[in-house]
Amino acid sequence: MTHHLVRYLKQDFTAHLFDYLLLITAGVFFLISVNIFKGERLLEFILLLAFTTFYIIWGIYHHIVEDDLHLKVVIEYILIGFTIMFLLKALILP
User: Fold this and answer.
1) Looking at the 3D structure of the chain, how many domains does it have?
2) Can you tell me the distance from the alpha carbon of 23 to that of 12, in angstroms, rounded to the nearest whole number?
3) Span 54-88, pLDDT tens digits
4) Is the dihedral of CA 70, 66, 31, 8 positive or negative?
5) 58 lies in which domain range?
């Protein structure tokens, strides 16, 4: 079972290398920016909101390219994005 999952993830990552590299790069820039502007509460929140927005748009774009975009998928990305934003705001950026 685990072997099939690993094979699927490798195939998916290889097939959508640009998409995942874009997401990883944006995540790294987000973390670097938050570290640079540590203590600037408003700027940290704006960066967090910008990254969350980017994640939602990235997810929609990714599914448009795959031709499997549905309302359920959009709502899922919005809920995951804002859940992560809430958790980061509450735990890491209090």
Assistant:
1) 1
2) 14
3) 999 999 999 999 889 999 999 999 999 999 999 98
4) positive
5) 2-92
